[in-house]
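Section 5: illustrative case.
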């Protein structure tokens, strides 16, 4: 006996949380992401084809890179290309260069020689060339300058004898590049936090640094020169230190082995107890020249030049010299002073330079100078030497926090309030913060993330840092650290998505959503990968949050696949989708920046072209491309030609020797192979998109159509008809599996054959040549470079109860 049913599948992200008879069907959860390949699910209903990726450039020498966002504002946002010992900058879909120089000639020679009057380039400079007419093989490429003269330069290693002849035009710009000391391995371990035009960087093996933008083409990377601190706890041993002088370059001597050569750059702080070392200033008292006194926590030196008697007014200034009656008092210090180690002599002796404190005073306490004043009241800097450097960084409540040094992996160091490079210790509310998490085992702090509280993400637990009860700001005397969850975080930098923290668990195969729970007044963790466990199997290596136009978390899989997660928790919509790039491109890094109405997602893609390994840096085109099918961009690592009708498309050098897919004036064109940087079309066109092809595919879950004696799971079924509901689509193939697909006609007899098929919205009735099986699936595929959005699939089927 057969039971006939009509099943309507509405494609909403929330449907990837199916339930069967009141129970979570984990098998359906795990299959959900398999059904969407290069299709993005949207909370408002429907799934749409992933937009193509537009070619923005290549990495330097084809090396592996990490992409990182730099956002001064929505209008001034950049993507940084971190490579081995360098940083380069992308903006507005291309690499940033200095002012370009006009090219007036290029020779056909080995090597090619470029003429550009007063170009100003130096040998070894990297230049990017665009806009050349004739010798188009030079366009959209970077070259190394060699044998430069005032008006000419060679393109190192470029044999242009086989290129087309130069005709006119062209521009060359020196690529903006910042030198670093980060290796290709270390770039993926950098944590960062931004304040306006400064990006602060933290890495466990490097001094904390800052990248400063002073203009579009001017960038500077420097180590942070902290005004003071941070420091380890004050010495509690019998080892003493003294300095040879109180200002300038001094020698610091220890009574026991203490220093190593790695301490160069490390701070040493001296402290003295004012009440013990100095008499308090008194009125009507005779003071000899060079006498020291203390008053209100400050130390002053009498510098009048002779013995004088004080009046009734005490010294109260905090810098320089001031006259009080007949006495001139010089402000010296409070109770501390510090120096930076500049040279290593041996384990007991180093050279150091006395540094300014936050008041601009550079002097050590008077009673720490000379061997007779050797003191146990000293502290060493918390960064450098045997301590290593912090690996975590974040802004929270107007402080810059660091954490996770190798020697003190559970310690957190917060700056002076609103003074990010100052870690002067103290007990005032705005003084620096120094705290170590007390827990049952060592929890290496991998990340700090600002939220309602400062979230501290370690290798095995998640903590929060707040002030007092949580409603007060954090101060040195009211720091409150609580353990919240025990998932553990990987080294992949977490992101804030809406009001949630998204982290990749330490094993790399679980994605956790951390949110604040009012019921428990703490953090609550939810496993997002339970919806599709296979998606993250093998490990995730990078992630980014795209907020506009849809809420999507993008991940990079260890195998190079791009993975998406539609994440709209407020509307209960969570759905996974997979996005292999065209021609098996391997994604290695991802970033996103605001760009108009849509966030722009950048990817670094490893490819092999002409037997050489290259990395294309591309960005995903907008999902909303408009209402004209000519603007549809659904190819990978692609470029667009827009101009007068032509059959010759040039400047495709990054795709040399590759087979490419083409959309010409809104219509699919036969595939072509790029030769000598160009392709010849079969027909002329004025708007052409060219790049790698990729397929987009939807496969429905196994049909549950009901049966006379219960459910249809496990029973023989047959789909005998399908209605697909499309939105702004052109072209699709439908069938029971990928090996049996029929193309749906979108062109009808009323349409002119020499114009593009307009986008279609509505239902398509499909005769479905299905057999009998237990699954009864429907597959919809788009293999052409055209748009496809599916709102629903209506399946008409028979379930056989016998």
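Designed sequence:
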């Amino acid at each position: 006996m057969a039971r006939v049913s009509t099943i309507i599948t509405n494609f909403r992200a929330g449907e990837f949380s199916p339930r069967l008879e009141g129970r979570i069907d984990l098998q359906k959860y795990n299959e959900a992401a398999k059904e969407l390949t290069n299709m993005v699910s949207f909370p408002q209903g429907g799934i749409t084809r992933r937009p193509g990726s537009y070619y923005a450039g290549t990495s330097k020498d084809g090396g592996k890179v990490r992409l990182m966002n730099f956002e001064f504002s929505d209008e001034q946002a950049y993507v940084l290309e971190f490579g081995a010992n360098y940083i380069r900058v992308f903006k507005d879909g291309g690499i940033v260069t200095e002012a370009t120089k006009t090219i007036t000639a290029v020779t056909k020679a080995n090597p090619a020689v470029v003429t550009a009057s007063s170009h100003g380039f130096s040998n070894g400079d990297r230049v990017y060339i665009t806009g050349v007419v004739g010798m188009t093989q030079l366009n959209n490429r970077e070259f190394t300058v060699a044998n430069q003269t005032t008006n000419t330069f060679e393109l190192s290693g470029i044999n242009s004898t086989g290129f087309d002849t130069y005709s006119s035009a062209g521009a060359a710009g020196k690529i903006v590049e910042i030198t670093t000391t980060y290796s290709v391995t270390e770039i993926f371990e950098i944590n960062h936090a931004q304040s306006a035009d400064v990006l602060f960087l933290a890495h466990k093996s490097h001094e904390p640094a800052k990248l400063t933008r002073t203009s579009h083409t001017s960038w500077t990377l420097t180590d942070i020169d902290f005004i003071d601190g941070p420091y380890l706890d004050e010495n509690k041993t019998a080892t003493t230190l003294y300095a040879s002088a109180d200002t300038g370059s001094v020698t610091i001597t220890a009574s026991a082995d203490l220093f190593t050569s790695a301490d160069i750059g490390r701070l040493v702080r001296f402290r003295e107890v004012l009440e013990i070392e100095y008499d308090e200033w008194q009125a009507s008292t005779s003071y000899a020249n060079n006498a020291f006194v203390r008053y209100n926590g400050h130390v002053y030196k009498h510098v009048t030049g002779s013995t004088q008697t004080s009046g009734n007014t005490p010294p109260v200034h905090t810098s320089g010299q001031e006259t009080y009656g007949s006495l001139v008092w010089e402000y010296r210090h409070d109770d501390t002073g510090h120096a930076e180690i500049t040279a290593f002599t041996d384990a007991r002796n180093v050279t150091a330079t006395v540094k300014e404190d936050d008041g601009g005073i550079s002097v050590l306490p008077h009673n720490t100078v000379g061997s007779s004043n050797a003191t146990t009241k000293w502290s060493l800097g918390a960064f450098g030497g045997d301590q290593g450097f912090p690996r975590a960084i974040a802004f929270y409540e107007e402080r810059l926090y660091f954490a996770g040094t190798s020697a003190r992996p559970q310690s957190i160091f917060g700056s002076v309030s609103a003074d990010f490079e100052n870690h002067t210790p103290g007990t005032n509310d705005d003084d620096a913060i120094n705290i170590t998490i007390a827990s049952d085992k060592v929890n290496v702090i991998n990340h700090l993330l600002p939220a309602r509280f400062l979230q501290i993400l370690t290798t095995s637990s998640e903590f929060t840092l707040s002030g007092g009860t949580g409603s007060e700001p954090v101060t040195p005397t009211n720091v409150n650290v609580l353990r919240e969850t025990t998932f553990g975080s990987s080294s992949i930098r977490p992101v804030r998505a809406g009001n949630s923290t998204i982290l990749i668990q330490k094993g790399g195969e679980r994605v956790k959503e951390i949110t604040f729970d009012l019921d428990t007044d703490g953090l609550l963790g939810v496993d997002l990968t339970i919806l599709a466990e296979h998606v993250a199997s093998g490990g995730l290596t990078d992630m980014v949050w795209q907020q506009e136009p849809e809420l999507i978390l993008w991940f990079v899989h260890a195998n190079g696949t791009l993975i998406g997660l539609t994440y709209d928790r407020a509307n209960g919509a969570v759905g996974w989708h997979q996005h292999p790039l065209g021609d098996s491109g391997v994604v290695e890094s991802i970033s996103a920046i605001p760009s108009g109405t849509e966030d722009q997602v950048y990817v670094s893609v490893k490819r092999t072209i002409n037997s050489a390994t290259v990395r294309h840096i591309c960005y995903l085109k907008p999902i909303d491309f408009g209402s004209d099918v000519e603007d549809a961009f659904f190819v990978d690592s692609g470029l667009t030609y827009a101009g007068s009708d032509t059959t010759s498309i040039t400047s495709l050098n990054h795709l040399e020797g590759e087979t490419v897919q083409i959309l010409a004036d809104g219509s699919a064109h036969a595939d072509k192979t790029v030769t000598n940087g160009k392709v010849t079309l079969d027909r002329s066109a004025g708007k052409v998109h060219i790049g790698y092809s990729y397929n987009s595919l939807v496969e429905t879950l196994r049909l549950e159509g009901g049966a006379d004696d219960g459910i249809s799971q496990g029973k023989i079924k047959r789909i005998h008809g399908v209605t697909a509901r499309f939105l702004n689509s052109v072209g699709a193939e439908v069938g029971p599996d990928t090996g049996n697909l029929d193309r749906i006609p979108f062109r009808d007899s009323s349409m002119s054959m020499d114009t593009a098929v307009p986008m279609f919205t509505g239902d398509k009735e499909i005769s479905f040549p299905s057999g009998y099986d237990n699954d009864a699936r429907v597959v919809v595929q788009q293999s052409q470079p055209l748009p496809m959005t599916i709102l629903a699939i209506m399946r008409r089927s028979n379930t056989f109860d016998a």
